[in-house]
Write a structure and sequence with these properties.
The chain contains 13 helices and ten strands. By secondary structure, it is an alpha+beta fold.
């Protein structure tokens, strides 16, 4: 299978990428924060490799400014995040023809899309009458055996009609048993294509700061010297981020009154925003927010207990905030 075209919509900052073609080598060019990673992440979620799992999460990935109107905007079904077209190769076409019949698949181009909360949707173009004729020939139904099924024009309809025959022949019964095992022609073609779909891996070779740390856990890592271990690199970058902002974990958590606590967090947020924006002029709508909050039990460990420090980026243009770790590598 060869990927031909991609269209990403309703995904983070990529509200509509428009249709673009993919060749043997495809280079995506744009400013940092322009949405290049959003397009790649949406494509990765079409059929992700287990080593780099990517999922479509409505609360996280649907454009935040429109999330409250999601049900009204998509009343007839969930929003589609990525739509692709693929060209089937000769061996794949032959494998499909061997199973459902020659000429049943009428195009070597197939559309595959994925919506929020759903598995990939595969849409081949089939000649349903040819699929029915293939089965009639395969089981050698004669004219009279075909005539009682005269109104049937799809294999799905055939599956429904066979059990309703008042006097089925042995061939009818054999065909019914066969279809009970393999399903409709459409289902078989979809299964064959699904098994041949390439898997997507998405990765970036950059050190990334964690978007949040559990404060008590981080203090323990600092105290016993484990903070410098490679596995805690993202946590260490977070503590260095706070130092760069002009505050430390002890300084923030040692404050006894809310106003002083809030003032220190706002000062840290403003300080880091000013320092970043001194060099980062591509998107003036971004600002940094440092938060300290009680953990929520549903979050992954160790962020589900005690106290959590969050670093988030607020985008005033789109009116949405995201973890610092999810910004583009250039920004981080």
């Amino acid at each position: 299978m060869k990927l031909n075209t991609v269209h990403v919509s309703h995904f983070r900052s990529a509200e509509n990428s428009e249709l673009f073609h993919v060749d043997q080598v495809t280079c995506m060019v744009g400013k940092n924060e322009a949405g290049k990673s959003a397009v790649l992440l949406a494509l990765a979620a079409l059929n992700p490799h287990g080593a780099t799992p990517a999922v479509l999460d409505k609360e996280r990935d649907y454009p935040r400014r429109m999330l409250i109107q999601y049900d009204q905007r998509h009343a007839t079904g969930d929003a589609v995040a990525v739509t692709t077209t693929w060209q089937l190769e000769k061996g794949e076409l032959e494998a499909i023809a061997a199973v459902v019949g020659e000429g049943v698949l009428t195009s070597d181009i197939v559309t595959i899309s994925r919506a929020y909360g759903h598995e990939p949707k595969i849409e081949p173009t089939l000649n349903n009458e040819a699929a029915v004729e293939f089965l009639y020939s395969k089981f050698k139904l004669d004219a009279s055996e075909r005539s009682v099924l005269n109104a049937v024009d799809t294999t799905t309809a055939l599956i429904e009609a066979l059990p309703k025959l008042t006097s089925p022949t042995a061939k009818h019964q054999q065909l019914q048993a066969y279809l009970g095992q393999v399903g409709s022609a459409t289902a078989r073609v979809i299964a064959l294509i699904r098994a041949r779909m390439p898997k997507f891996m998405y990765f970036a070779a950059y050190d990334r700061m964690d978007g949040a740390i559990q404060i008590e856990h981080t203090k323990a890592l600092i105290a016993n010297g484990q903070i410098d271990l490679d596995q805690y690199r993202g946590t260490r970058l977070f503590t260095e981020f706070l130092d760069y902002a002009g505050v430390s974990l002890d300084e923030i958590t040692g404050v006894a009154t809310y106003e002083t606590f809030n003032a220190k967090l706002q000062a840290a947020s403003n300080n880091i925003t000013d320092q970043i924006m001194e060099y980062w002029t591509q998107n003036p709508d971004l600002s940094v927010a440092v938060r300290i909050e009680q953990a929520r039990p549903g979050d992954p460990p160790p962020l589900n207990t005690d106290t959590v420090a969050w670093a988030r980026i607020h985008n005033a243009l789109h009116r949405v905030d995201t973890p610092f770790s999810e910004r583009s590598a250039g920004f981080v």
